[in-house]
Amino acid sequence: MSHQPLKNLQVIGMRYGDSRPAQNDERSLDAYVDADVYSSAGVPFSVVEPQMIEALRSAMEPDNIGTLGGEVAHAVADARQKESAILMTGGNCSHITGIFGGLQDAHGPAVRVGLVWFDAHGDFNTPGTSLSGMLGGMPVAVCAGLAFPSWRERSHIVAPVPTDRIVMVDVRNLDEQEAQLISSTDIVIAAVAPEFPGQELSTAVNDLAARCDLLYLHIDSDILDERYTPNHGTKEPNGPEMAQVRAAIDMVMATGKVAVAAVVSVYGEGEGSDVMVESGIELIRGCLTSWKSHGGAWTV
Fold first, then answer.
1. Full set of structural domains in the chain with CATH
2. Which residues contact 119 (CB under 8 A, 6 or more apart)?
3. What percentage of the chain reaches a pLDDT higher than 70?
């Protein structure tokens, strides 16, 4: 079922970088509240902030990210039972595993969830392809079952995400081996706007929506050109403007299949943080106003 009007909103706020509290940086969550951006949805909303269970912390950081992902999964499943739209803010891309786990908790492992991935990077590395070993560059591969099964399972993902249910938008900076790995799968790379490389976005997204029960729209702020994200740890030049990204968001929301959206990796400290936070607010506003216009998939 699709195109159901927006009724209420569950915000999942993440004050973490991977499994550790974001030191001296609340990941812009307080700034979002101060700006009252969540009211852009025009419906009642509430905010929950999952916490890492420190008694379960291990020496293996992928396991810890999975443990925190399990707490995210609980919040997602609870929101789905209430037929709420779900918006994750704060945190970083490593927290996506909890989104998929929560959707499987709520609807069973056979639920067909499509991922629309807005990012300058693919985050599809594995320990065998990564040049840096950075775990933040691996969560999509984890969701797809290609790395760290314990991270995936602790996040409640029973069935890995098939790669033909992944559309990557932009990903203008891929490691060489990562690009080769992506090309060996059924992942589609789409263009954020016509002047950028990739398949036409509406074609890719509408095809994905037709084959899925619901969609998860994930946005790392570094999809934007670096002038919008001056203090981002992985900012990239030669990216799209805010208006182009907001138009792309609206194109995805117009499917009526989006059940979960996320705006992550918005850093609230350091030189340029005022610009970065304003970019995060604008991305969130774009998601919520489009959701308000188009509705989404609150039931399966």
1. 9-294 (3.40.800.10)
2. 93, 168, 169, 170, 171, 218, 219, 220, 222, 223
3. 99
